[in-house]
């Protein structure tokens, strides 16, 4: 006799992979103003082109975001060709009155002063595929081609080992 018990709350439905944002979204982020109003592309000396770029959609109050940003910070020394850009969407930041523009500035000042941050409006957030959970991480190669998305809606955030291997493959 075969007895099957189905517990609806324990079943995880199959989900489609995260949609990839269009290729030019990286160029739009680079042309966007940071928290100080300067275009991201203005950073860095000429000829010092990154070999990989990470966009991390984050919120100042998000514990998972803090962990991923700290991991990226630790990996930057080993991967000098890595550029990390924070993307802060107002809807995520202000969710349930948890944060605001001042909280973002304070977080960056205190924990990630090396990271340039773009405050994303609706058009840029839509271009990124409107990721519902933070952090969401997009990794681009030196040519600006999207090579990996880490979307917490579909999987856990990557650890240092996984990112280190990816950055090695990209030559960052």
> What's the β-strand tally?
5
Mean pLDDT: 86
Strand order, sheet with most strands: 3-2-1-4-5
Broad structural category: alpha/beta
What distance lies between the first and last C-alpha atoms, to the nearest angstrom? 58 Å
CATH architecture of the domain at 63-172: 3-Layer(aba) Sandwich
If you compute it from the alpha carbons, what radius of gyration comes out, rounded to the nearest whole angstrom?
17 Å
Main sheet: strands, sense, barrel: 5 strands, mixed
Defining traits:
single chain, 6 helices, 5-stranded mixed sheet, Glutaredoxin, globular, alpha/beta, 172 residues
Can you offer a commentary on this structure?
- The protein has a domain of 110 residues: Glutaredoxin (3-Layer(aba) Sandwich).
- It has six helices and five strands; from the N terminus they run H-E-H-E-H-H-E-H-E-E-H.
- Helix 2 links the parallel strand 1 and strand 2.
- Strands 3-2-1-4-5 form a five-stranded mixed beta sheet.
- The chain is α/β, with parallel strands linked by helices.
- 35% of the residues are buried.
- The chain is globular and about 40 Å long.
- The N terminus is likely disordered.
């Amino acid at each position: 006799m075969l007895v099957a018990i189905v517990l609806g709350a324990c079943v995880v439905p199959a989900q489609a992979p995260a949609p990839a944002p269009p290729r030019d979204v990286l160029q739009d982020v680079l042309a966007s103003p940071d928290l100080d109003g300067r275009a991201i592309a203005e950073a860095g000396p000429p000829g010092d082109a990154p070999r990989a770029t990470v966009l991390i959609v984050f919120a100042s109050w998000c514990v998972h975001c803090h962990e991923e940003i700290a991991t990226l910070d630790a990996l930057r020394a080993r991967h000098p060709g890595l550029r990390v850009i924070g993307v802060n969407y107002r809807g995520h930041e202000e969710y349930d009155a948890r944060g605001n523009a001042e909280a973002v500035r304070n977080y960056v000042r205190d924990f990630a002063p090396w990271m340039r941050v773009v405050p994303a409006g609706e058009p840029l957030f839509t271009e990124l595929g409107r990721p519902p959970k933070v952090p969401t991480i997009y990794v681009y190669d030196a040519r600006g081609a999207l090579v990996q998305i880490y979307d917490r809606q579909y999987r856990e955030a990557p650890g240092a080992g996984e990112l280190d291997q990816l950055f090695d493959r990209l030559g960052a």
